[in-house]
Batch of 3 targets.
Target 1
Amino acid sequence: MRLFTGFYPILYVVLASSIIGFGTSCTQTKQQIDSPINFEPAYSLFVSKESVNNFVMIDSTWQQLASFSPPHAGFNREFIQRKGFIYSVNPENDYLIQYRISSMGLQAMDSIKVVNDNIEQYHWKNNSDTLLISNVVHGDIETCSFYEIDTKTFSLIREAQLPIPPAVNDFNILSLGLVRYDNDKLWIAFAYSKMLGHNEYTTLDTMYYRTLDFASLRVLSEQKDPRSTYPGGINTIQTYSGTAENGDFYFTSGPGIAAGNNIEQPSAIFRKKKGSDEVDTTYMVNISAQTGNHAYGFWYVGNGKAIVRGERSDKYTDFSNHHAVYQFEYYLADLANGKLQKLDLPLDKGTRKENVVQVGADLYIAIDDEKENHTVWQYNLESGKITAHLTPDFPIDYQLRLDKLK
Amino acid sequence: MYYLCNIEEMKITKELLERYELGQCTEQEATAVSLWLDSTSLSLDGDDEQEADIAEDIIEDLLIEQEMWQHISAYMQESAAKSNIPERSENSNAVKLAKNNDPTVKFAALIAIAASLLIILGMGWWFYPTTASKEHLFNASNSDKAVMLWKEDSFEFTLSKNSSASINLQSGNMAISGDVLFSPKKDIKLYDKHNNTSLDFRQGEVYFISTDPDTSELVVYSKSQLEYLPPILRKHIRKQFHLT
């Protein structure tokens, strides 16, 4: 009898725990994390908790998860990912390092010395294995370094300077917003900013575009577009452009306080038609006119549609808390008629994120909401259905990136 | 500096402070102690060479010290109240109480001794920063070079042009003008003295610190947080400190 009297309370506790556990799991199922990886990773989350970054690898069924640390303390979310390889500049020594994703983490394979750690633009030439990288090198006079790299052999094909003017009047901070190879030409969009005070700046109210001959880097043409400013943005951090099935190229501008800070101008979508060296001046989707806010982030998702990530100016005070407040809304933009449809997703935080992945008709969007859920949501473009898809059981403040690895 | 004259005229002793807290001072003594407690400088050693910044730090130090003193006082009053119980009933003094075999009285005596020890320790703690503040003050300024680097045992400072930084390592108060990079070699907790905020700095991290010109608050970004800033501000910071 003693055995039973001693055993019953334990039984009650186990039963109660099971009920509580069941109740909790009904409201939010957190996916357990394993380590090391014993599956083929298909997706990766790059997450941050109190400024400590980690990778969470996910299998193709979204059922198995494993985590590992980045290769060094200075490794941040500004990396390039393609075909199971990751490319990142080590800020300590300015080497661009090629890593392979392995079961133990990122395995360094090879490296190339670059001028600085500040990759502003990367682009896969003709969607091949040739990587084009552009950096602005800061100094009394801004210059642009350009690297052409064969990632198959990880060797430098060419290192050159891009002929981009360092300043316009006293606007002496140059930003490269877009770099794109097309038909033996290199097309570059850029803008100029200047400091107004201690922590204040603004950007000149014009988007600049230049077309260069790819082989010689000679300037073929230049276009000034006053409809907005700060075209594109640093694309190792977030995507700001996409190419439609017919070859037309779409991109956004970012004059909001978190980018160009010329807030009277609109955040908008622009188009450069296939085969043309010029941006189409007859086409513009004014995002700000529809949402009353600025936007940062653009992902083309097929069939003339794109996802736009927009801020809420009523939620933040200034850029000091811009990244920390829950304010970001997601819109489905119809690029043909210019209509924006707000998606039924929780408000997200983080000024810039690379957090939209497409698999067929499904979009996966990693959102950090105000209930402290850090969840990958699934949005089916055909049915319009939106569901919580995956919540990793892992310490997270921000899901900075969601990548499809293959 | 006129406070120093008042202080020099006073003979503030441990006994006087004890009597002050027990309410046994004369009116003149009580006024002297009050003035001493309210004074902005406790430079009893007559050191009158401290500059305005250091004096400000000491005011902050004093506030902390007075708060500490209030805690000690509260403890003293509590012990005095306890020791007064047998005093009232037996009309005796503390020395006699020590001879009393009553365990309550023994306990009260122990409390009194403990309180006295606390006062002595408190006094030691109190006087320590006034003599140590000079050697625990870090001061750096850069008025003409593009960037200047200061290396200390526990941290490094990189100052951009027209910038200055000071830390009172005793109180932890930090003051910055302009733009600086701060690289602690150990975990350090410092205080933004103008805004009563504490700042935790981690070993191995690099911090960009500036003062908001509108609010005079310290604006602190760790190097890893720089990625959350608008890219143009980040470029500006990189440019200032030659981080490219």
Target 2
Amino acid sequence: MPALTAASSAGAATMVRWVSLRIDQDQARFKGIVRGKIRQNLRRYVSQGELTGKRGKDLVSIPLPHIDIPRFRYSDRQQGGVGQGPGEPGSPIGPGDDEDGEGEGRGKAGKEGAEHTIEVDVTLDELAGILGEELALPDIEPRGKNKLLDQKDRYVGIRRVGPNSLRHFKRTYKQALLRQISTGTYDARHPIVVPTRDDMRYRSWKTQEEPVANAVIVYMMDVSGSMGDEQKEIVRIESFWIDAWLRKQYKGLETRFIIHDAVAREVTRDVFFRTRESGGTMISSAYKLAAKLIEDEFSPAEWNIYLFHFSDGDNWSVDDTTMCIDLLKTTLLPASNVFCYGQVESPYGSGQFIKDLRERLGADARLVTSEIRDRDAIIGSIKDFLGKGR
Amino acid sequence: MARHDLATVLPPYLRDLQQEVEAHARSFGLDFFPTLFEVVSYDQMNELAAYGGFPVRYPHWRFGMEFEQLSKSHEYGLSKIYEMVINNNPSVAYLLEGNSIVDQKLVMAHVFAHVDFFKNNYCFKATNQGVDPRTGEPVRKWIDAMANHGATLRRWVDRVGIEAVEEFIDTCLSLENLIDPQKPFHPPRAREKKSEFELLDGDETLEPAGRLRVDRDYMKDFINPREFLESQQRGLDAERAKAKRVPERPDRDVLGFLLEHAPLERWERDVLWAVRTEAYYFWPQMQTKIMNEGWASYWHSRLMTEKICDDGEIIEYAERNAGVMETASGRLNPYKLGVELYRHIEERWDRGQFGPAWEDCDDLEARRSWNLNTGLGRKKIFQVRALYNDVTFIDEFLTPDFVAEQKMYAFGYSKRNDRFEIESRTFADVKEKLLFSITNAGQPFVRVTDANLGNRGELMLAHEHQGIDLRVDWAREVLQALVRVWRRPVEIHTVLENKPATLRFDGREHVQRLRA
């Protein structure tokens, strides 16, 4: 067993080794600042939808204005500078990215670029967390069907025997230090602490059973002729954020997509966001399909079911609307945690459907309706939908 | 060397290389501090680069930001740091683990020239912390100094919290460029207290102001007529009024001024002191970017091509060197500009192309074939590297021939076309623009002029306008930082769009007004 000593500055070589912790702290605080910036600009990010396209597997790259420390300096436009290369007077020069790549380089001859931006990677989970905090969204309480259990090992305890790979260095050191001080063998001038067998401490684990909440989101979108590109974009952005938030709440989140005009069909995520059909609108077709989907695959006893429907509210006939309301009453609402209807304003539609829903089913707490006038309204609409914590 | 032979992790084959390169460098007359090489992995290299080369700095988020950017651009393959060296005695340089032998040789050659520059260029004398009485060598224990700043600030973090300290570091960094590069060369200031007492003592017995000595009483009114006495008195009063002003004369060392006069808590003083000390340490590197990189590039190319590379290595070296020297998208590359200018100087002094005869010669043909075989080139560039900084280097040695040969141009922003355009290729324009961009390391001149403005304890600064306005939004934020330190309203006199203007912040709101 090697002697454990407190870190000493034995020379530059070792210094380089242990500072890697130090930059971690600085980096963590930088990330904290970034989170603050994201929070400040969240509304812009949400409504512009520039993030939804930049999605990697788990990470989202967010362009942020370069965080600079302000100083007295010259304004860019008047300055100019000196360059090297071909070209006649009057010919434009390349924009030239201004990253200063050379080691300790600051202050150099040459032009200072316009605004820098940096890209920061944030996990979608974190972003959803920020959204949640910003909108004060309550955590969702899963409905009480915790039948599914998952086993998980967690390292929560300490014990005196164990494999060396689980040795708890700090506790062992403390224990040895304690022993040496209490027996009087500790010498402050030569602070060498040697642990004995009895001092060794190891991490130990407990197996815990965790209830797993299963959830499914069914997105339904009206793709009839009256839904334009802008309307679809709004739906796209809003469902992206809803997805992100619910994903944070549930581990095994399933998503299903239904599009409908006069008939409904289940499609992939890609198709959901891209298609543009043109036909009449029969909303009941989508509700029927959703009801079938729930019956076949997602038993309400085991699943938390979220239904989102986006439309411009221009249904084909009064009869169809009545059928929709019946469907909601008898099957969809009882089965789901919440049924959200978002009505996107379009230049063509009458927007009658939301009024009908509110009139006939407005009392039911499981139904949430929201009107989305434009992109700026997305964030309010998300709050309408998810603000109840159901 | 042996005395400084500290423990490093340099593997034997690199140690052998170091000895070889070092011997070659010395044979050319380079004179450097003992240099320690360390091999680090790329993330350690990024970390060190984020800390400006130092293993330990005070805690601050911007190091984390630097690190994140460096790591990312490394991972994406956009940039790679080959070399880093610290101005310290002994100097410490880092080699990247896993680089090819040619790369390591190149870096070593480059580093020894840098260290020679650190040791011999006069600007860097400002970073001396004293002289070792035994060897006469300058003391530069900056790794220790930076680590001490780190330790001090970390202790304050434990007492007052990271948020408070970091916020105040932000504040101080906003003022980081407000230092006086000449100050380290001033003689130490005489104690003020003493002279104040003398003035008091003297005042009682002092002859009425400025009276000339009168030996014969009847000459009194002729030698000292009333008008003369009055004018003398006025002069003296003005002098005394000036002496009462704080600062006595406009002071560019705003950070030093604040350190002395601002109502700071102890921990705030320690933070400001650390930031100021480090700002002074880094300044010479900003003042000599072109010269320093040029010098290192000049010597790595000579050492590599004349001494170090064997036949199998020369191509790889040439490729690497070309990458360093490239001038992409019309931007000035300090490595390239510096090395070419040293070569230009060397050639001129080798051929005797200097002095009145050369200056007065108008015959193009004669100038082209001018060769007096003076052979002073080597001697001259060594002298240049000791006595010049970027500004004087360009001012004295940039020639019309060189500007044409290097295809240099001056560019500026064209309002009409909303873009940056080449403005001119004439020597005078290029030189003027270039000099402007490196004067004071491209920073505006700002001085503190009055600490008791309007007898209300307000601070006044003056920007010496040289044709380019300050960036106003940033200037406002700097004023906020100044108010944070000074705790009273602060204003700066400048010129905006050709009109004298004052920017003022009183702690609550910003005011911008024109001055008559």
Target 3
Amino acid sequence: MFDKYIIDAASVRNTGPSDAPTGFSFETKLGYYRGIGLSMVEDLAVSIDGEALPRAVISFDDGHGALSLDEMETAYDRRWLFGAVATITVARPGGFPAGEHKLALQQRLRVSYLPFPAFNNDEKTVKVA
Amino acid sequence: MSKIKRGVSLYSFQEEMFLGQMSVEDCVSFAASIGATGIEVLPEQNMPSFPHLSDAEVEEWKAMVARHGCHFTAYDMFLDTKLRKDRLMSDDEQVESIVRDLKLCNRLGIRNMRVLVFVRPDILGRCVPYAEELDVHMGVEVHAPWHLEHAWILRTIDEADRLGTKHLGILPDMGIFMKHYPPAFRARFERQGARPEVTRFIVDQHEQKIMAEYTIYEVAVKMQGNKAEVAMAETLRHAPYANPKRLPDYAPYFHHIQAKFYEMNEDCTDPSIAYEDVIDALVGCGWEGTLSSEYEGNRWVQDVQNIDSREQVRRQHVMFERLIAKAEARHAAKDAA
């Protein structure tokens, strides 16, 4: 319902030393009409130009401390609030590749009343200055 | 005079709230400006400290709506049976979660709780003593493709009858009365590549109330429909037209209605949902409760335009006032005759 808004293309930044970036980060919102417990965020799948990045290099921070995706699975008492911005950080030596590239995010949620997982997909063309 | 009251669900303004263009209070203020003074709240959307609201926060929320001359009408609960990856919530945990919501609902001074349609009737039966104690009506959302006389819904009615309680029943979503296929849906599928001759076929099939599976087979197999065309045909599975004349039979079981809509025409008519028949039936049986706007059109048009939920909701309320007056006049004339 909010797919087109879930990647903030203007927020993409390299992380670590500017001459030797260790990765990149970007801001995202939960593509859902309510907030949800972090344990029900099954995956935040990131890809660049169609190439999927490993789950283990992705972390999430809603402003209350960074968690790996595996740690999120048991974060029963933390909620990702409706409309709230969170930061996804990707460990990737060299940071975001130079020039224009397609950054894609798929949020996979375990929504109890649905018989299947819910997917939110967005893809934005990004250039990191 | 009918006893139907007008209100809005905060769900209606999800686009603007998600984008940070409207606060909850902006939505309440707008609702007040169109005389829709009943506010349906989704605590998990609108209340950041959910589920741990302090007494002071509860008082702030009540004071905020009161400041605008509004009041809360309904509380939309959720039940995270899949909270854990390794197992479903146990029955005891489900009851505990629902009782948590009943208590917060009561603290907020709200007497109607919208229960998700997938919640089991026997679990709700176990919650009835708490609902009675807290004086909160648990209304199972009758949401398309379920409908008033779907066997799953009748199980909740049976459970309420078995227990002899007035605190368990239903809460109909007007999406079950889709008389005409929404033009906004059709236009979106055409933008995604559906051919106009195929979308016309699907709309005609829906207009004739041909069962969805026939149309899906025609489009997917015989017409070799593309992805957008098959997806559009598949929406028919969720586009039932239930009979509004059955509403009076079930009126004792509901006090609140989610007035779902996908778009309003500029002349304040709904091209899809059979509100004229619905409101006539409600007025005719003397139903007392709130018609609570639930605008769900943003997702169908946000690819091509900015969303103006306020204007959409405003138009729906112009329609409500017109249809309520019309139904009152018709029934008054009938009674006089």
